[in-house]
Design brief:
Elements (H helix, E strand, L loop, with lengths): L8 H4 L2 H15 L17 E7 L12 H7 L3 E6 L5 E7 L13 H16 L5 E7 L4 E7 L2 H12 L14 H11 L5 E6 L18 H10 L1 E8 L1 H4 L6 E5 L6 E5 L3 H25 L2 E6 L4 H20 L8
Parallel strand pairs: 3-4, 3-6, 6-7, 7-10
Antiparallel strand pairs: 1-2, 4-5, 8-9
Helix pairs in contact: 4-5, 6-7, 7-9
């Protein structure tokens, strides 16, 4: 298990590196995350949002809805929806399988780097950016705020989130986390789900059998634009030739020695891993969400840029007016 982040905050989002990141990425991805909205208006808005449970230390006590609190005997707050504002919510999976990394960076920190990219781009028009951190025992909410300093604070809290030890158990799963995100954030916007999309104990390779999180992703995509960022490590899909190797699942009790010097054994493991990733790809496509696969041994900036360029071509075709009709 890692003891500290593999990408410190001063390398992830310093001012100088941030300017370089904007020059390298924003000019290529301009327009993808901004949407066709008019920008942020002054004030918190006048339309009431759904009531949710009060979180001490994060919510303003002046927003407590006393009528709902009296009926449920649990403190609830009711937010207001700002007019014509895009809200981006990122869900980060920090379960034990995300602590893996053999190329100098863990899957968890690679996911945070992807969230940082989305945050840098969406902050251009003053939109709000919030986050959820999925641990086995709970789903931690980071309030959505606008501004560059607020984004730095969110990234710092994600980087300094305590590591989850191996074999940690709890009621929270990816499907339950996506469901809670869909229920609590009813305002339409952009939703980013960062995970390896591996379910403990799920050994199914048939793409026709839905993973347990597929229905939740499909429901989330009904009202929002959803971007699924799948993070993988090279050694999860390409097993090395290192002789006898102990393969251990950090989220279950599975352990087995495998002779990686046997070319047939490596070929079977690579084929099973490829089938597993193909099942995830097909499930995300059925759910109707955007899908980016990032690897710890590749340039994640190029992977995101390649996805956005392909998305632009598809969007231009979908949004083009019918033949003979002026736009």
């Amino acid at each position: 298990m890692p003891t500290r982040p593999t990408i410190p905050l001063n390398k992830l989002a310093p001012e100088a590196a941030l300017r370089r990141l904007e020059l390298a990425i924003v000019r290529r991805l301009e327009g993808y995350l901004q949407g066709d909205h008019l920008g942020l208006l002054p004030g918190p808005g006048t339309d009431a949002n759904d009531a949710r449970v009060y979180i001490a230390g994060e919510d303003d006590v002046r927003k407590i809805d006393w009528a709902v609190t009296a009926r449920t005997t649990v403190p609830h707050v009711r937010d207001t929806m700002a007019d014509r504002e895009l809200e981006v919510w990122a869900l980060l999976d920090v379960t034990p399988s995300m602590n893996w990394g053999t190329e100098g960076v863990t899957k968890r920190d690679l996911g945070i780097a992807a969230i940082a990219t989305i945050g840098f781009l969406s902050q251009k028009m003053g939109d709000r950016f919030g986050g959820y951190i999925m641990r086995p025992e709970q789903l931690r909410r980071l309030p959505a705020r606008s501004g560059r300093s607020a984004l730095y604070g969110l990234l710092r809290r994600m980087l300094t989130e305590p590591f989850v030890p191996d074999h940690a158990h709890g009621p929270m799963s990816l499907a339950a986390s996506v469901e809670q995100l869909s229920r609590t954030q009813r305002r339409r916007g952009l939703r980013v789900v960062v995970s390896d999309f591996l379910t403990p104990g799920d050994h199914e390779l048939d793409p026709n059998i839905e993973p347990e999180w597929e229905r939740s992703m499909r429901r989330l995509a009904v009202r929002n634009q959803v971007l699924a960022i799948e993070v993988v490590d090279k050694r999860e899909i390409e097993f090395p030739d290192v002789g006898d190797m102990l393969i251990r699942d950090p989220e279950t009790d599975f352990e087995r020695y495998v002779n990686t010097g046997d070319s047939d054994a490596r070929a079977r493991m690579d084929a099973a891993s490829s089938a597993q990733r193909e099942r995830i790809r097909i499930a995300l496509r059925r759910a109707g969400v955007g899908h980016i696969q990032l690897r710890t041994d590749r340039d994640w900036v190029q992977d995101i840029a390649r996805f956005v360029l392909a998305y632009r071509r598809v969007a231009n075709m979908l949004h083009a007016p019918p033949q003979g009709v002026a736009k």
